[in-house]
Specification:
The chain is mainly alpha-helical. Helix content is 78%, strand content 0%. It is built from eight helices and no strands. Helix 1 runs antiparallel to helix 2 and helix 3 packs across helix 6. The longest helix is centred in the N-terminal third of the chain and has 79 residues.
């Protein structure tokens, strides 16, 4: 093709047809420009395809992470709610005293034995933020929600720390010689399950219901557990659902 253009150019110059040569030269320049523009368009299309593919990979990875975090949060909310309901049931028994020592031991163990701590899957999100890859997500609202998600988790951690402190206050009663932790473990059946020797001394845990200190710590635990559930976990779940919905819409 270039050889043909060269021959035409030489022929026009030889015949001294300047006007035709200029028209030809402009046409040749135009063809070169068009070729460059086509090449740029193809390159841009390839780059855009690479960027889109990368974005889709991020979106799919984030969806998997947040789906796992959602399952973890739902399970944690279930445990927290069970702790709350059992703690309220113990509070009722402070007045009614219709429970046996073994029943109370089981209730105490269920209420205070399970720690509450949300541990979401954020490895990809943190990697994207640290590497600056978060800006590769085209949806600005999604990027905003993902950034706010991490800030919300800091508030959740603070609330869980307060809940842990209230739980520890109740457990402190069993770090003294006033009430027997071993009695709770034996009467709730935990000792047998863990292979801890059982004394079978027949002691009772019921006197704890007469302790004002225990009642106060129980009430504080109930308030903190309720706040964790309604003011933190439930709004967090709503935020998580919104993020998952946005991710789903962006995935092609």
């Amino acid at each position: 093709m270039l050889h043909l253009f060269k021959k035409i150019r030489k022929k026009l110059l030889k015949e001294n047809r300047l006007k035709n040569y200029l028209v030809y030269a402009l046409g040749e320049i135009l063809l070169v420009v068009i070729g460059i523009l086509i090449a740029l368009a193809i390159n841009n299309a390839n780059q855009n395809r690479i960027i889109k593919n990368k974005e889709q990979n991020y979106l799919i990875g984030l969806k998997n992470e947040f789906s796992t975090s959602r399952a973890k949060l739902l399970e944690l909310m279930k445990i927290n709610q069970e702790n709350l309901e059992t703690a309220k049931a113990i509070l009722i028994q402070i007045d009614k005293k219709e429970v046996s020592s073994s029943q109370l031991s089981s209730m105490l163990f269920q209420t205070y034995s399970r720690d509450i701590s949300f541990n979401p899957n954020n490895s990809l999100l943190l990697e994207m933020i640290s590497s600056g890859s978060l800006r590769e997500l085209s949806n600005l609202n999604l990027r905003h929600n993902l950034t706010n998600w991490l800030a919300t988790l800091d508030d959740i951690a603070k609330q869980e720390k307060d809940l842990l402190a209230q739980r520890e206050k109740a457990l402190d009663l069993f770090r003294s010689d006033e009430f027997s932790l071993r009695t709770i473990l034996e009467q709730s059946g935990v000792s047998s399950q863990m292979g801890i020797p059982v004394t079978n001394q027949g002691s009772s845990i019921l006197p704890i219901l007469e302790s004002l200190e225990f009642e106060n710590s129980l009430l504080q635990f109930i308030l903190s557990t309720e706040a964790t559930q309604t003011l933190h976990y439930q709004p967090l779940l709503a935020d998580l659902e919104i993020i998952l919905e946005m991710l789903e819409k962006e995935i092609k």
